[in-house]
Amino acid sequence: MKVEVLIANIASQADIEAVVNSANANLRLGSGVAGAIHTAAGRELEDYCQQYAPLAFGKAVITPAFKLPNRFVIHTRAANYILEENAEEILKQCFESVWQIANEHSIKSLALPAIGTGVFKVPLELAAATTATSLRAHENDGVELVRICVTDTKTQNAFWDALENVQLAYC
Questions:
Q1: What share of the chain is helix, strand, coil (3-state, %, to 5)?
Q2: Residues with Cβ < 8 Å from 21, sequence gap 6 or more?
Q3: What are phi and psi of 147, to 5 degrees?
Q4: Which of 170, 127, 96 minimizes the C-alpha distance to 32?
Q5: Are the C-beta atoms of residues 65 and 19 closer than 8 Å to each other?
Q6: 109-151 per-position pLDDT tens digit
Q7: Residue 30: what pLDDT?
Q8: From the centroid of its chain, how far is CA 36?
Q9: Which residues contact 32 (CB under 8 A, 6 or more apart)?
Q10: Which pLDDT score is estimated for 145?
Q11: How many angstroms separate the most distant Cα atoms in the chain?
């Protein structure tokens, strides 16, 4: 598996088969990643998602990408780190749910955000470490490219450090 950590808009990854949305329970337009993905995909995405709402903590669902340049959106719901005592376990389950869907649909490339670090307040280092550990555990599952899309150099550096800690090569 090739892993990239780029400062990039997750909603503009035209060469990626599926983007992952750090979703809210109602799978609606929100702030951060959910806002960017829903805005770029158009109203059809939000309408389509309603059949899956409310999305439980740690679960994931797959939808068409509509106006996004991708084939799919995989929506997963983290928990608020401050309000939920098992938020770290829920974050791990988010990744397991995403991997399960990616494998079921033979997805070869994924774009991931820093899941949970926005309104859910997951500490950056924890989110990066959880992502890196999950990537390491699933590096031979069939996904050939994972692009982690971040918004700034601080976040990019945290993900690079986490990937180095699990001895997973990146570019």
A1: 40, 20, 40
A2: 33, 34, 37, 38, 73, 74, 75, 76, 113
A3: -110, 115
A4: 127
A5: yes
A6: 999 999 999 999 999 999 999 999 999 999 999 999 999 999 9
A7: 83
A8: 13
A9: 22, 113, 118, 119
A10: 98
A11: 41
Look at strands 60-64 and 72-76 and give their pairing.
antiparallel
Angle (nearest 5°) at CA 48 between 64 and 93? 70
Rounded Cα gap, residues 25 and 57, in angstroms: 8
DSSP 8-state assignment for residue 55: P
For 22-76, write each residue's pLDDT tens digit: 999 999 998 889 999 999 999 999 999 999 999 999 999 999 999 999 999 999 9
At a CB cut-off of 8 Å and minimum separation 6, what does 151 contact?
7, 114
pLDDT at position 31: 84
Strand segments, DSSP code E, in the chain are: 2-7, 18-22, 60-64, 72-76, 109-112, 145-150
Please choose, from the candidates 77, 47, 41, the residue with its C-alpha nearest in 3D space to the C-alpha of residue 61: 77
- The tokens of 116 are what? 């949970």
Task: Please tell me the predicted confidence (pLDDT) of residue 42.
Answer: 97
The identity of residue 36, as a single letter, is A
22 and 165 in contact (C-beta within 8 Å)?
Answer: no
The pLDDT tens digits for 75-105 are 999 999 999 999 999 999 999 999 999 999 9
